[in-house]
Amino acid sequence: MIFTIFKKELKDSLRDRRTLMSMLVIPIILFPILINIVVFVSKNLSEDIATREIKIGVVGTDKSFIYTELSSLNEQVGKKKLVIYKDTASMLVDLKNDSIQLGFFTHNNEAIAFKEMKPLAITVYHNGSDVGMVERAEAYMKLIEQKANLNRLKSLNINAEQVTPLKTAYRNIASDKEMFGKLAGGMLPYIFIIFGFIGCMYPAIDLFTGEKERGTIETLLTTPVARWQILFGKMGVVVLSGITAATCSLLGLYFSIQTVDLGAGVEVMDTINSILSFQFIALLYLLLIPLTIFFAGILIPITIYAKTFKEAQSIITPLNIVIIIPAMVALTPGIELTTITACIPIVNVALATKDLIAGTLDYGLVALSFVVMVAVAIIAVLVSYKRFGREDSVIN
């Protein structure tokens, strides 16, 4: 009987365009399109910042140290045009008006500073809202400082190695899989958690609040079927929609990585492909299924309570924030799956998935996470059952 109700509600849900959009179209089609757009815009913006000609103001003359050094850099850090100013006031006015993008000012007399072997104080002015300019300024100064240091050591007849007592080398022992998991692995659970919730949301609203609006819930309740069977049949459709949406979001992300030039090397692509093993997928769904049941369990009481589709949406929308914040924990560096975090719903799924991608998963902690998610899923189902069993909630 539960399966009969499940089939009936599934057919009704598949006729709803909102459900299909949230479950299939958005994650598997729109997702790759959005990634393509973001990558295209980011690459073009980065290339424009790195290659476009900028104007640099210099207080002094064309014989000054900073002007000479900037001129000698050619186009190592992008094209530039130098503008000479007599004072900083006029230079700052042009900088605020974006007539120039950077400004250099030398505080002390450079001839005396070099003669007395003292540091030459230089201030670089930039507009913080102008993206990429401070990076350009730092790149210019790094090259100038390197050259000035070598010249200072040469004038003192000192070999650079004589004033370099230590030579440190850093060797990374983490595998590509671990690096990818720790750096980018937080994005994957964030995506499937959000789409899993959205995939549950619209079917839940349609199957409960929608039936109340259409007046068909009374007819369904008059059939010789136990109310818990009706609830489980409907809940099965909500859970299936959430899992399908999460799966489609993962497929959309995978297709995006395969088709979009993210600037990643062959090693990174091989690492991504090696992650998608049977064990990875099995463990992922082991966490995803109770998570989706939990989402269905917290959404159904709300949709039973709401009288209209609009009211249900207005109540559920703030709930998105409650789901997003724990999902974002996996994106925060330094937060790992521990006994404490494994007991926090949603957070444990996000962190366990991150470790799963990195290949550093503690199976004891993932078992604890699974038990916690099953427990909260059962509680959510019981709350739904209690709410659906109340006459004043279902029929009003």
Q: Please, could you describe this protein's structure?
A:
This protein is mainly α and 396 residues long. The protein has 2 domains: 2-39 and 176-394, no CATH class; 54-163, Periplasmic binding protein-like II (D-Maltodextrin-Binding Protein, domain 2, 3-Layer(aba) Sandwich). Helices cover 67% and strands 6% of the residues. The protein is built from 16 helices and 4 strands. The chain has helices spanning 2-14, 17-51, 65-72, 88-96, 110-115, 133-155, 176-183, 187-214, 217-221, 227-259, 266-275, 278-305, 309-327, 347-358, 363-388, 391-394, and strands spanning 54-59, 80-85, 102-106, 122-126. Strands 2-1-3-4 form a 4-stranded mixed sheet, with helices on both faces. Strand 1, helix 3 (65-72) and strand 2 (80-85) form a beta-alpha-beta unit. It is elongated, with a radius of gyration of 30 Å.
Secondary-structure topology with pairs:
Layout: H1 2-14, H2 17-51, E1 54-59, H3 65-72, E2 80-85, H4 88-96, E3 102-106, H5 110-115, E4 122-126, H6 133-155, H7 176-183, H8 187-214, H9 217-221, H10 227-259, H11 266-275, H12 278-305, H13 309-327, H14 347-358, H15 363-388, H16 391-394
